[in-house]
Input
Amino acid sequence: MSNLLGGFPRQIRFIVGNEACERFSFYGMRSILTIFMVQYLLMREADAKAIYHLFVSASYLTPLLGGYLADRFLGKYRTILWLSIVYCIGHGVLAVWDGSKMGLYCGLGLIALGAGGIKPCVSAHVGDQFTKDNQQLVKKVFDIFYWSINFGSFFSTMLIPWVLPKFGPAWAFGIPGILMALATIVFWMGRSHYVHVPPNQTTGATGFMPVFLQALSSYPRRLAGQTFWDGARGRFSAEDVDAAKAAASVFKLFLTVSIFWALFDQHGSSWVLQAKEMDLHAFGVDWQASQISALNPILVLFLIPVFSLCIYPAVEWLGIRVTPLRRMSAGMALAAFSFVAAALIQVPLDHGQKISVAWQFIPYLILTVSEIMVSITGLEFAYSQAPRSMKSTLMSFWFLTVFAGNLITAYISEINVFKGASFFVFFAALMASVAVIFIWNASRFQVRDYFEDGSAASPASETEANDEEDDDGEPAVEYA
Output
């Protein structure tokens, strides 16, 4: 790890170590959640899928609270530390009351509050450790950050589904709780090394919601020639209004990403239940259905360096600029193809044939490539496009897309209209349609790069940023 993080600020190793342990905790618990509800609490599969996605959506709604607390009151460090303790308590509740539905709901509620509340703060806290002098390292550190997430996720997804039938739910939920406690300790150990960006309450900056609500309340009285945001300019400074406007433009772009998450997080629900119908003896090993989802993190660990060192440079060498929005556009399209592959696998299962679970490697590979292009890039893009006063807030907006996507999946699962292969075909068609909308919006988006010194590049549309060059041959707008 020290060689991997060579050249980065010293404190990055504490944040990355914390993230690896925390993700082991979260994904280990999540990997057995659907199977636990079906096999141990005897819930219907449709109900288990719905609860799973409601929990995931709650975990990505609470980032709004975490981002608000961090940006306005506590700062990122204290928000992460205190909500991590809540997170640990949630794991404890699951482990102690492992046979109770009420214990399940209470434990999941506390984990959703803790895990979701720290999400925008941890991502933004990573970026805070850099300035304009070393901003070229930000993309690399987000790659490493995401690599650590999947490092923890892979080992937990392999271990915890094995622990569940061998030692029971108490240990299967207890081990992730121990790792979360370790994550909290690792993060606390770096306290004297971090760059602590104070909350906006101490700097005089204004959050997003006050500016937005003022503009909204003034909108009916808007004068000719005024824009929506001009209604807030009399009460808030031009800097505050411009910051809120920048955050809103990114959020508008991110809205369509919700459908990507509606598909992606099904590798922990509908894809697990699909694996349960398949022949789980593959490559000489008898697998648990929940273990197959470990394909996602292990593929991420392998593919991140492949894309960073080989595929992206090769595409650039062909004369095609690999901008963040182009990466995300390609990833959105690929997500649809992964569900086409899942539907093709489901067809013989619907006709009573028991095919090998090894076939799931194909949709997992396509979905993971899509994830690398959308998720890693989205984190990096959200941070670079956020003014200083909006960084945790905009990170929470990014996570809000995960909330909305899982809410959609929970609803579709609960109404139980689509069955078998048609379930996967529906999501593939939905994703393909939304990918077209995202590509259209991305081509018109104006890009700015903000870093902690407060500077920002001049705005340019995605097309202009791709094609315009300065006299020295460098792009007119650089991307983080």
About this structure: The two ends are 23 Å apart (CA to CA). The domain at 14-189+237-467 is CATH 1.20.1250.20 (Growth Hormone; Chain: A;).
